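Quick illustration, no need to memorize.
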Amino acid sequence: MNQKVKNLIQKLGEAIHESVSESEDIAGVVKNIREQGFDVLLMLEATIGLNEVETEANQPAETVSEDADGPFTRNDLTFLKSLRITLSEEESADISPNNTPDTPEA
């Protein structure tokens, strides 16, 4: 990863921190909790994942993982896993075909 990307990731982290720090909604809720007699310690963790974009327009869309059922790309499954969400066979069978990603017909 080059230095420019590292700097951009750092800026993204700082922007997330700033938006949370300056949020009037969050400040209001924290104030209400303190009025109830509690101290508040707010710790957030952000995971930033990067996937290099392929530049060729004729590259096929990423295929579904062999060990998963449903209309999910490998990136979808990785994202769900990062949220600690897993799909059982029953849950993936309940997913509507209308939820498939928009990909051009081959």
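The longest helix spans residues 3-21.
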